[in-house]
Amino acid sequence: SAVISQKPSRDICQRGTSLTIQCQVDSQVTMMFWYRQQPGQSLTLIATANQGSEATYESGFVIDKFPISRPNLTFSTLTVSNMSPEDSSIYLCSVGVGGQGYEQYFGPGTRLTVT
Amino acid sequence: EDKVVQSPLSLVVHEGDTVTLNCSYEVTNFRSLLWYKQEKKAPTFLFMLTSSGIEKKSGRLSSILDKKELFSILNITATQTGDSAVYLCAVARNYGQNFVFGPGTRLSVLP
After folding, report:
1. How far is B42 from chain A (nearest CA, A)?
2. Residue B11 burial (C-beta neighbours within 10 Å; 0-12, 13-18, 19+)
3. Counting CB atoms within 10 angstroms of each CB, which of A67, B19, B29, B64 has the fewest?
4. B96 touching A (Cβ < 8 Å)
């Protein structure tokens, strides 16, 4: 398994501003993922962030809105840009472990509220 | 379009009851099916299933996968109030990417 921390744990932001969420892992991992979970909904994958390459975004998510950095094998950031109330959500990072990255372990999440 | 369906979406039981949660899927390039328990924010990993018919057990929880009928079940015996949570089913496609999550089953265990 892996121990994952996220900062901040929660934030309240104003419309039009940006927030950067940090994800730190206690071991080196190749695959990191960013998810969004809107109120009452299940998890939706935003993008996959592998170290040394550009993040791969899922349909409906674009780099301009959710830029991701992956500078090394233990750290990643997700920025939510030009926020609107619709971005209010829990944002979770996860890491893929195991020989083929099948198991995913999640960070504690960041609860974002946009006013 | 790939999808994962869970049923029921919500379930209320009393302590000591046994529950069965269902997960069916239609996913291309299936690799594995995973179960998670989500109490507050972060989902907690429970099981990963890759082969049909092999039951995985952890205490009062067990799960099995049927790759022919494309479904999995999660059983919880002798439920406790601490089992109250949302149980998520997810399917992994290809190499650890593109996990597709189901909507979850919200389980409430009453004392």
Report:
1. 5
2. middle
3. B29
4. yes
Interface of A with B in 23-82 (CB under 8 A): 31, 33, 41-45, 48, 56, 58
Contact status, residue A6 vs residue A110, Cβ threshold 8 Å: yes
Output the pLDDT for position B42: 86
Bridge partners for A10 per DSSP: A111
Beta-carbon separation of B96 and A41 below 8 A: no
The DSSP output letter for B17 is -
Q: How many domains does chain B have?
A: 1
Residue B111: inside a domain: no
**Could you list the residue range(s) of the whole structural domain that residue B32 is in?**
3-106
pLDDT single digits (tens) B27-69: 888 888 999 999 987 899 899 998 888 899 999 999 999 989 9
For residue A29, the domain's CATH number is 2.60.40.10
